[in-house]
Design brief:
With 338 residues, the chain is mainly beta. Strands 1, 2, 23, 24, 25 and 26 form a six-stranded antiparallel β-sheet that branches. Strands 3-4-5-6 form a four-stranded antiparallel β-sheet, with no helix packed on it. A four-stranded antiparallel β-sheet has the order 7-8-9-10. Strand 19 and strand 20 form a beta hairpin. The protein is globular, with a radius of gyration of 18 Å. The termini are close together.
Amino acid sequence: MNVRILASLLILLLSAGVSATVYESYDCSIHPDGSFSPDGTKIVFSAFDSGGRDKLFIANADGTGATAVMPDVPKKEFTPDWSYDGKQIFFISFNKQGNGKIYVVNADGTGKNELMPDDPRKQWYPDVSPDGMKIAYVSRQPSCKEKLYIANIDGTSARELMPDSDEKQFSPDFSPDGTKIAYHSFNPADTLDKVYIVNVDGTGARELMPESKEKQFSPNFSPDGTMIAYVSFDEDDLDRVYIVNTDGTGKRRLTTETSGREYDPHWNPDGTTIVYNGNVVVSAPALSTVASGATDAVPDEGEEDEHAAETSTSTPGFGAIGLCMILLLHLIMRQRSL
């Protein structure tokens, strides 16, 4: 049966204030932050406030009612992730020394605290485990190499996940059962960014698509753990959202647009929606459309994020901040049937 994906496009426009409306077409800007709450009713994301600062906002899942989480806090805020119960948000901001660190705040904007104040190293990409007991994140080694770490949810007992690995590691994402972590690895030897999956104890790391020569980053598990959404490049050297089975088979591109870029896909909890960041008008293809292989260069993600965090200006070219949503009806069932 030829099933078409229904597309709903969400734009969150920021000017003197913040409002959010669903549009059939839009020009939304690239900003790699945004994810659904555990119950699927809210989206938390980072966007410009009226003063041009990167701040956390929470909106309803349909794009209405966007409000700043901490409007009176002057610090910039990035890469938010919900706690397992939706009561708190983990995110990156700057400490007194000017280093990017993991902070936690209640969803109502109260109780902001630095998670690991005694750790002097910079931190990025917090991701909370499904049971709410652990947090995975990226930290920088003295050798200026970004590596995955895992800690208790209160910041204690932090340890490097794969101390024997020579590759840079970014963007951890826990599997729904909490036993594995998908991540983006950069191998300086072949200059390729690739998606890997590793056990939470740091063993058994495997490349998701070892035969592929495309660069891959920003992996996100589907709610049932059978698929991973990620970003790669198409033949026009533009970032695109793709879906692949967790055994590395069945790769396909999610969208059909021929211009603009797409970043940072996240599934909603019931598996029917993916929210991602982009700057194009998109129309969704049939799920049976298989994407062709894609290769080309992508900047070192860790270096790019660190530069953005440490400079006084945000990523250029943002007139309006947009989060794009594609409604994938019965996504899991359709993917399995192909």
